[in-house]
Amino acid sequence: MKTRSLLVAVGLLGLLLGALSFLQKKVPGTERMGKESRRLSELSLREAARVELTGPKGIFVFEKKGEGDWRIEKPLATQADSAAVEKLLSDVQFTERLQTLPKSRVHDGILQTFGLGQPTRTMTVRTGDGDWKIEVGRETPVSGGVYCRIRNGRAAEEIAVVEKHLIEIMDRDLSAWREKRVLPLVVPDVGELLLHQGTLEVEVKKKNGEWTMLKPVEAPADPTAVAGILGEISALKASSFVSDTGGDLALYGLNAPTLALEVKTASTNRVLQVGLNDPKETHQVFARVADQPSVFLLPKASVDVLGKIADRIRDKRVVTFPSPEGLQSVEITGKGGDFRLEREGGSGRWILKAGGMRRAADVEATETWIKRLHGTKANRFLTTEDPAKLGLTKPRLTLTFSWQGQGEQGLTNRTETLKVGDESKEEAYLQVSSISGGMAVPAGLIRELPESPLAALPKNIFTEELGTPKGLVWVSGGKRKEFRLEGGGAWKMQGSDKDCPEVRGYLNRLASLRVLKWVGVPGKAEFLKPELEILVEAEDGKKTKVVMGRVGPDGTAPLKVEGVEPVGLMGKEGVLQMKNSPELPSVVAGSPATQR
Known about the structure:
Number of domains: 4
Strand content: 35-45%
Structural class: alpha+beta
Oligomer: single chain
CATH architecture of the largest domain: 2-Layer Sandwich
Helix content: 10-25%
Strand order of the largest sheet: 1-6-10-9-8-7-2-3-4-5
CATH topology of the largest domain: Dna Ligase, domain 1
């Protein structure tokens, strides 16, 4: 009897060793194993609706609530890290099956030998095609493999050796599976953001698609900055979770938070509360979301940055009209007089209106200062300074911009007023109608603004309407010279047959001349004994006469253009160019006539 029992035991042992040897022929790393490996499951695990995972780290149950949205049901009802769950499913599905044991060799003894009688880990996945389950047993004697039992939907179960990597995939604790973003947001859905930090309150609200700061001052908000800050809030991740039951919030300073961020959408109102620094890790702070029990740690640096949103969100633009190209008019009032600049239809021209006068404005200069003003941002805001001390209660200049903007009822006329106050050596002080308080900007910006109608006039002394010159009369120092454009395009001095090719260059330089500025009504004494008179004649009887007064010690000279009321001030180089006899080469070689 004993002999028969011994023979049976030896036979069973041989059978087990044979099965074990068969499974271990293809351990990881062999060429044969690599050819026969295949996916662990043919089911589409990534379309799973429920996952149950059991192992050394505990029991976890995940439920899918929507596309790409997983929640943890056990051991704690909370949001899951959906990317981590999706990666688990993908990694399990594509783990290599190294070898499968023939069904004829599967029996209870084999299951116990492989550790599958009491598996160390199990994972059940519910899909539309049925449940898929895997049980993990012992590691193979040769490192790199692990024994598993696989129940693949409606198919029969299998016993296989799979990569040991499967254990690492399944052995993760709660912190690895839960969502670490503490306040995930859909940024376009957010309609209001509030910050409470001690006595400081910041409120930013979206209305008609535009963000506006309501506290601590009323001012436009920078939409790019708001979107960036909401993105930072949404990306905030807990370094670790301290408690999931709340407990005594006073221990964490959360009974009276040092900072609270409130984010509102049409359907939700979430509040992130920040408490004390962690005494063990001072670069971390305790925090919680008001409608959840969990207390967690956040990096202090991330919270400190969010505490400065008042300065970051505020729109630092000096003016907020949408674009220089869309501007229709600018009303300007100040010590230099009241005048208006209007854009003329689609011509690109600007028209100056002042005291009944209607004249073409300097398009290039107008476009330049408008574009610079539009592109400038404040150096800093002066919310606590007395406006009177900044010169803003009696501004030296006020500009009102008009344009058409999209409103609830379609296109509407919009305006914005800019007041210019005093200036220091480097800064000037402004106030815009859309904000309270002043702002400091570079002083050079303000010095480009036209403070009188004269400053808005074109500075060229010859207009395009004159046309192509056909004749030139030049008088200076008691000498009178007359030049005519003859057939063949040659310029000749009258009274002689002399060709004067330099006259063409002289006229081109005259066309490029610009006064330094227009200075007002001429004084008679300035032109009693003019130093120069120039008459340019064109076709159809068009002509322009220019008279230059006495040249000053600095080389500049007053200039009177026939038909133009104000007197211009010509720069030194321009004076030299004009006084140079037309048939002679330019006195400023290689340089256009400038007024510096």
